[in-house]
Amino acid sequence: MKKKRKESEAFILEYIGKLLPGDTSNVQIYKDLFAEMDDETFDDFMGKLGRKEIRLAVIAPNFAKAKVTVANNLNLADELGHNFFERLWIDPGNDIPPYLSPVRYLVGDMILRRQAQLQVKKMSVPEDNRSVDDLTGQPSGKSEASRISYPETQVLAALKLDKNIVEMTAIRGGDTKGFNALNDSFARTGGASQKAIEHLRGGVKSTQTLNSMLISMHLQPAGLVS
Questions:
Q1: Which end of the chain has fewer CB within 10 Å, C or N?
Q2: Which structural domain range is residue 76 located in?
């Protein structure tokens, strides 16, 4: 048992190190973990790995010199005799028989997280756009429908959809004058342009409210923007 355990530990430590070349912190984490395990605990740990109840993890900090790369992962897969690419059975439907794809595709497990709660049976539709919160200038009550989360904002930023962010978080997120100008443009012309209504905007109400709160606490609200 001790010989098998040493071989298993050495194998795990070797490939944990190879997944992130140049970084030794992950290897040290597992060395410390194994040092705390007796043989029975280690056997249970390996059993859970085998049954896929747990998985080995690698910590790869952002902006660090050591990076996880696709090329390195593919080389390690070849070294371990694993092939990430498979031909897939495709069922087109409409009485067309299924066929095996001539091209091999990358197949792997991925983490999927929804950016917002999906509402299927509880669809929220505002009755009007006239009710706003006094402190934030944002839609409230019967006018409130949905929200944009911080992760969703990050996705928009990654896609370089800056205008969409401005519309969601500013014009529709508390800039009452800008929101009214946008709606007025829709009513008169059937369309709207952020550039065309820029001079009519008045700033986000929540920022102005926070500014007033900080001043009332004798704090200088440096760096606040509308």
A1: N
A2: 2-80
In a domain, 200, yes or no: yes
Angle at 7 between CA 79 and CA 70, to 5 degrees: 30
b (16+ CB within 10 A) / e for 102-111:
eeeeeeeeee
- C-alpha 211/C-alpha 149 separation (Å) is 23
160 and 211 housed in the same domain = yes
Single pTM value for the model = 0.49
The residue among 105, 144, 114 whose CA lies nearest residue 128 is 144
Q: Does 137 fall in a domain? A: yes
Q: Are residues 210 and 122 in the same domain?
A: yes
Give the Å distances, CA to CA, from 106 to 46, 55, 90. 27, 20, 15
Q: Which residues contact 112 (CB under 8 A, 6 or more apart)?
A: none
**What is the block-wise mean pLDDT of the chain (226 residues), using blocks of 10 residues?**
86 94 92 93 93 91 87 92 92 87 88 64 66 77 77 90 89 85 88 89 85 86 56
